TrEMBL record:
<dbReference type="GO" id="GO:0000917">
    <property type="term" value="P:division septum assembly"/>
</dbReference>
<dbReference type="GO" id="GO:1901891">
    <property type="term" value="P:regulation of cell septum assembly"/>
</dbReference>
<keyword id="KW-0131">Cell cycle</keyword>
<protein>
    <submittedName>
        <fullName>Cell division inhibitor</fullName>
    </submittedName>
</protein>
<dbReference type="Pfam" id="PF22642">
    <property type="entry name" value="MinC_N_1"/>
</dbReference>
<dbReference type="InterPro" id="IPR005526">
    <property type="entry name" value="Septum_form_inhib_MinC_C"/>
</dbReference>
<feature type="domain" description="Septum site-determining protein MinC N-terminal">
    <location>
        <begin position="4"/>
        <end position="83"/>
    </location>
</feature>
<comment type="subunit">
    <text>Interacts with MinD and FtsZ.</text>
</comment>
<dbReference type="GO" id="GO:0000902">
    <property type="term" value="P:cell morphogenesis"/>
</dbReference>
<dbReference type="InterPro" id="IPR013033">
    <property type="entry name" value="MinC"/>
</dbReference>
<comment type="similarity">
    <text>Belongs to the MinC family.</text>
</comment>
<dbReference type="InterPro" id="IPR055219">
    <property type="entry name" value="MinC_N_1"/>
</dbReference>
<keyword id="KW-0717">Septation</keyword>
<dbReference type="InterPro" id="IPR036145">
    <property type="entry name" value="MinC_C_sf"/>
</dbReference>
<dbReference type="InterPro" id="IPR016098">
    <property type="entry name" value="CAP/MinC_C"/>
</dbReference>
<dbReference type="Pfam" id="PF03775">
    <property type="entry name" value="MinC_C"/>
</dbReference>
<feature type="domain" description="Septum formation inhibitor MinC C-terminal">
    <location>
        <begin position="107"/>
        <end position="195"/>
    </location>
</feature>
Amino acid sequence: MQNVVLKGYKDGYEITLNAEADFKVILTDLTKLFAELQLEKEKVEAKSISFDISTGTRLLDAEQKQQVEKIVSRYPLFSIHRFTSSVMQIQDALDMIESRTVHLNASTIRNGQVENVKGDVLFVGELHQGGILRASGNVFTFGKNEGIIHAGYPNDAEAIIVGNIHATQQVRIADVVDILEEDQLEDSSETVVFVNDLHVLEYTEREKVKMIRPKLFTRMGGY
């Protein structure tokens, strides 16, 4: 197998690096490839080209990526669009799994405290006034809610909040905030909060989730 393989596609170019090859050899072959490409470009009309660098089952560290970028930077008409790989760091994998997990949380969150959750949270604890429950995903709450509930932190506007939030001070989804007035909402565990097409928080009933967030409904298996 060649150490460096160039392929052209309808939407661009990809250079595949042999995951089994010595990295110094790959750098040498990359240098030869771009020198040849430069000669070809000089014979035709100059047009910039961006490459995807695919490393297969090899993960390049920051220094190795810089070495590849240094080679490409010698040629102004060439650039790297992105590095891709078929594997990921263990920590990245764990973070991805965690972000897709529904976490059961029974904490008591007092005034001035912030409870951060990565992924979705099923909250059955107590959220006091001045406390903040913050999740990167959706918030499903069956607990006491008198503080601030923040779903989709920091920028997931597709997240929702489900549960009895009539006594909550504020609800937030991504960067959208609503300060709740007394008696603004019914005392009901069926309330759903979501960001509508106008990027405004809207309130509906739980039975409408399938319509407003069909992907979430499918992932969760329905209610």
